[in-house]
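Field reference: sequence -> structure
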Amino acid sequence: MNYFDLFPNVELPSFSDKRTSSLDFIKLKNLFKRGKVRDDIYGSVTAFSKYLVLDGERPDTVARKLYGDENLDWIILLSNNIINVQNEWPMGQYDFQRYLDNKYDKDQLGEIHHYETTEIRNKLGILILQGGLTVDADYTYKYTDSDGTTQSVNKVVSISNIQYEINKNDAKRSINTLRKKYLGVIIDDMKQIMTYTDSSQFINRKLKRGDNLRIAEPR
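Structure field:
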C-alpha cells in the first residue's frame, strides 16, 4: 500500500488563474497529517529486528526484501522515526563521495575533527572509562585502581574529518525493522489515523473543506 494513498483529502480555495469564481475549490492531499507507530509496539523490543543497510539500499528496496512490497517503504521510515530521508538515511558510496567532495578539499579531509577517549580498564578488567567519548586533546583521566594506586591516563585518539564522516554515515546503517506479523496492525492504525472526525469543516471521513477567506461574512 502506497503511503500517500492513506492520506485524507482537503478542499482549499483555488488560486488558479483559470478559476471561474471565488467559490472554486481544489482537492489536495492533506500532508499535514502524519502517522506513527503506536507506542506499545514502538516500545516493544520483540516487535522489531535489527537490520544493517547495505551500500546503495533504499527504504523501498529494504521493504521489498523484507515485506515483498516496495510500497511499504513508509513502514521502514516510521519504524525509525525518519522524516528527512536525504539526511537521516545512510548514503551509498557514490553519493557519499559527492558529499565529501562538496564539503571538503583534499587537505581538509585529513585534518583533525575531534579527539575521543579509548577504553580504560583497571587491573581486574573492570571497565573504568568507555571509549568513543569526545574530549580535548590534553584530556587526562584519573582514577584509583583496584590495588589502591592512583592512575593518571592521557590516552586519546584523533578522529580526522573523513573518519568522522564515515562513522556518522555508518551509524545510520543500523535500523529497526518491524516484524511482518505486525504489518496489518500498523496499516489498520494508519487508516484510522488518516481520517477526520466531525467538525465544522467535515464532509466525510476522508475529506474536509478549508475556510474560504475570500468570501465576506454576512453583516
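Note: The helical segments are 39-42, 59-67, 73-79, 85-88, 93-103, 106-109, 161-171, 183-193.
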